[in-house]
Write a structure and sequence with these properties.
The chain has about 220 residues and is of the alpha/beta class. It has nine helices and five strands, in the order H-H-E-H-E-H-E-H-H-H-H-E-E-H. Helix 5 crosses helix 6, helix 5 packs across helix 7 and helix 7 runs antiparallel to helix 9.
Length: about 220
């Protein structure tokens, strides 16, 4: 079994470097957090939310789970969403998936992994709802890339359908929900073309974004 004591050494060096570079950093961080953004992303260890958007601790509120899924039965995710919107007053919710996602691949291939199979059923449902995007002859790589994109769009829709988002829009609170995807192969974010800014706008914006994905099996290009 790997030893974990080196993580404390890493932490000490990081804290010392951070203090040397900015002596007031930890004092400011301890007083308050006032992020403008909520990031709902995948738990994959290769997708460090703050780093890939160049934000410091305290600037990005983060929720992560396998395959960046948002479902009404997940009180953890909904609690984060409610706190971010109602208490922190974030103005942007970003749902970000990524190409090369192990959860998406397992959902597509229906790989039996155990308890998580029940969670990934949500992703399998998305593939079944969009058969035209998975024609005969499509490769697994093409299919998982397309499913990762469709999954992001579906989870944006799920955020927008929560009473949390709807109530915020109805009281005229500034709130935008975005769908992005990240490329492990190049470190680049891609906008999937779905941003919802008000109640009642989801259906048209979602249909447009799904229709703009291009030929089946073609991932979005930056």
């Amino acid at each position: 079994m790997a030893d974990v004591t080196h993580l404390f050494d890493n932490n000490r060096r990081w804290a010392d470097r951070t203090h040397e570079r900015d002596p007031g950093f930890f004092n400011r961080l301890a007083r308050q957090q006032a992020p403008d953004y909520l990031w709902i992303g995948c738990a994959d260890s290769r997708v460090p939310a703050n780093e890939i958007v160049g934000l410091q601790p305290g600037e990005l509120f983060v929720h992560r789970n396998v395959a960046n899924v948002v479902v009404p039965s997940d009180l953890n995710c909904l609690s984060v969403l409610q706190y971010a919107i109602d208490v922190l007053k974030v103005e942007h919710v970003i749902v970000c998936g990524h190409y090369g996602c192990g959860g998406i691949e397992a959902a597509w291939k229906k790989t039996a992994l155990g308890l998580i199979d029940n969670w990934l059923r949500h992703v399998q449902d998305i593939a079944e709802q969009h058969p035209a995007h998975f024609p005969r002859g499509i490769t697994d790589a093409q299919a998982t890339a397309r499913l990762a994109e469709l999954n992001v769009l579906s989870q944006v829709a799920n955020v927008c359908r929560t009473t949390i988002a709807i109530d915020a829009w109805r009281r005229a609170q500034p709130l935008e929900v975005h769908g992005w995807i990240y490329g492990l192969h190049d470190g680049r974010l891609r906008d999937l073309g779905l941003t919802v800014k008000r109640d009642g706008a989801l259906s048209a914006e979602l249909a447009r974004a799904v229709g703009a994905l291009g030929k089946p099996g073609e991932p979005v290009r930056a």
